[in-house]
């Protein structure tokens, strides 16, 4: 399925879907890092440790989520943003891997973590402006963008509670549905 992707001969490893998904929430990250490429599992490096901490603080289980990425391999030197292959790789991986995965899993909620995953799913790039708002994906799947754990790891520790809240909110939305406030 990677034939024709700009990362076909440049990317390393290939991620498998992680988690049992009993919350009916799909977490989507950016791309595989070094530890992820070695283990074939998403969120296994420093960002994964931060995500696990947030999941623990939220009182939830990692296994309850489906976990994947917008790019299922590791880009050269872990560089995706601004690279010449970024747009083509994101578009290819979405059409060939992520979109069919969403159609197969039919999650009630997608939780894109960070600007890259949010851009792929919704077209928005400013994660700090769109995070926490509920959007609709085709087939009435709800999308709740949130902060990527790597952003927290890079010194933005005040956002850990934001991620904890968004994890809890995603599970709540999957369980109870979305009821927009009346004005």
Kindly list the characteristics that best describe this protein.
183 residues, alpha/beta, 10% strand
Q: Radius of gyration from the CA trace?
A: 15 Å
**Alpha carbon gap, first and last residue:** 47 Å
Q: Give the H and E element order.
A: EHHEHEHHEEHH
Indicate the mean pLDDT.
Answer: 96
Work out the number of β strands.
5
Largest pleated sheet: 5 strands, mixed
User: Helical content, roughly?
Assistant: 25-40%
Number of helices: 7
Derived structural class: alpha/beta
The fraction of residues in strands falls at: 5-15%
Shape: globular
Across the major sheet, the strand order is 2-1-3-5-4
Low-confidence stretches: none
Description:
The protein is α/β, with parallel strands linked by helices. The chain has seven helices and five strands. It has helices at residues 34-39, 46-57, 86-105, 115-122, 127-130, 149-153, 160-176, and strands spanning 25-29, 66-69, 109-112, 135-137, 141-143. α2 crosses α7 (160-176). It is globular.
């Amino acid at each position: 399925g990677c034939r024709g992707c700009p990362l076909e001969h440049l990317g390393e490893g290939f991620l498998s879907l992680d988690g049992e998904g009993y919350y009916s929430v799909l977490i989507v990250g950016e791309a595989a890092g070094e530890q992820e490429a070695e283990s074939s599992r998403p969120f296994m490096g420093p960002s994964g440790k931060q995500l696990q901490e947030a999941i623990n603080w939220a009182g939830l289980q990692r296994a309850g989520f489906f976990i994947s990425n917008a790019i299922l391999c590791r880009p050269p030197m872990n560089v995706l943003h601004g690279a010449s292959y970024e747009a083509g790789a994101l578009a290819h991986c979405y059409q060939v891997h992520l979109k069919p995965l969403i159609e197969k899993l039919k999650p009630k909620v997608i939780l894109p973590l960070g600007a890259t995953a949010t851009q792929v799913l919704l077209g928005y790039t400013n994660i700090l402006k769109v995070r926490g708002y509920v959007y609709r994906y085709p087939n009435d799947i709800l999308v709740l963008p949130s902060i990527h754990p790597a952003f927290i790891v890079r010194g933005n520790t005040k956002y850990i509670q934001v991620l904890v809240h968004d994890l809890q909110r995603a599970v709540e939305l999957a369980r109870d549905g979305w009821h927009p406030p009346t004005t």
